[in-house]
Amino acid sequence: MSEQNDPSAQKVALVQAALMHVVFDGWSDTTLEAAAQDCGIEVDAARALFPRGGVDLALAFHAWGDAQLRAKLEAEDLSEMRIREKVTHAVRARLELISPHKEAVRRGTTLFALPVYAPEGARAIWQTADTIWTALGDPSDDLNWYTKRSILAGVYSATVLYWLGDHSAEDEATWEFLDRRIGNVMQFEKIKARVNDNPFLKPLLTVPNFFAQRVRAPSQGRNSDLPGYWDENAQGGSAS
Prior knowledge:
Blueprint: H1 7-25, H2 29-39, H3 43-49, H4 54-75, H5 83-98, H6 102-112, H7 118-135, H8 143-164, H9 172-197, H10 206-212
Helix pairs in contact: 1-2, 1-4, 4-5, 4-7, 5-9, 7-8, 8-9
């Protein structure tokens, strides 16, 4: 199949062509139609690729950013970095990759702030967090799989909002903000570890930990469409 007729290549081409129009028309049907004209793609064919118009186009732009980040992280040697440094580096890299398209990100943030599209926006942020942890080789397959992505999604979304309003030289204020957010997360993890190691508080966590140990990350072949499943073979007993 030639690139001209490859749907994946056409999607990327439409997203790239749309970026110059988003500044004026937002993530809209008007932008999709203009991008199709620029690419020499029939408007009906473009609509078939993006059935919901601008919304699907904005999601494709976000997914493109994740794909660029994944390729970058997989090509880098981060073995000498601590986990905090790796996560900070990944979030910063994600924003630097899309920095030439800041207005497009702003328009997307506005779009996904609408209640009807808020779940789509939350899912996109979650996918970014998952992209980062997966690229960094996160080995967790229990409740930590979810907590790591939830916390990072919060850090990333807060950093994006700060970045959109940052006018400092080379976004230095944003990187300082990111360092503080990551620092807050690390402090939380230290406190959690101390509570788990405390002989007086540890008994209070017996029941929560009992259930937490039985949550598993999504896996291929078993309930992979669900957010987790009860592991009957987990340590400490079986499900009833």
